[in-house]
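Give me the 3D structure for DUF3515 domain-containing protein.
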Amino acid sequence: MPPVDTESGAPPRFLIVVAAAIALGLAVVVAIVGLTSPPEENAAAAAGPLPLVPVPAPQAASAPCATLLGAVPAALRSAGTELTRRELAAPAPPASAGWGEDDPVVLRCGLDRPPELTPTAQLRVINGVRWLQVPGAGTATWFVVDREVYAALTVPDTAGTGPLQQISDAIAAGLPPAPLRFG
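Predicted structure for DUF3515 domain-containing protein (183 residues):
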């Protein structure tokens, strides 16, 4: 047992200084390791493949879907954050892509006509593409309704407009407009 100061019962000052120096040294080592370790190159990749539930997509193997999936960006901007494209978990639904980690943005192509698309449905035009918004719990799914194939972009409510604008740009650049079909 180390000697103690008989008046206060505390360990000698020398032992307190040594213990403080050791603690400070460990804190410096942890800080240096944290600062010099390479940053996570891709947080989405670290999360592993993105599992997607299959949905009916009878035209997923079509040429327009292949064109669209080939034209989408590797990263999307969402509310000031860059969302990188994720690998999809096997078995991956055809003509699908996902970006981001916790609340991913998901694109699916070749879907059936959304039942919400009626002659009186309110559509929005974003960067030359007509979209039908279908709200959900914590997300919204936007259907492209003026191209040869239907595609859907599901975005979390926390996302900004960036993903919708960037996907609109890819659609406008690669898929010509088509008349609306109501049934």
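The CA atoms of residues 73 and 166 lie 8 Å apart. Let me know if you want a second pass.
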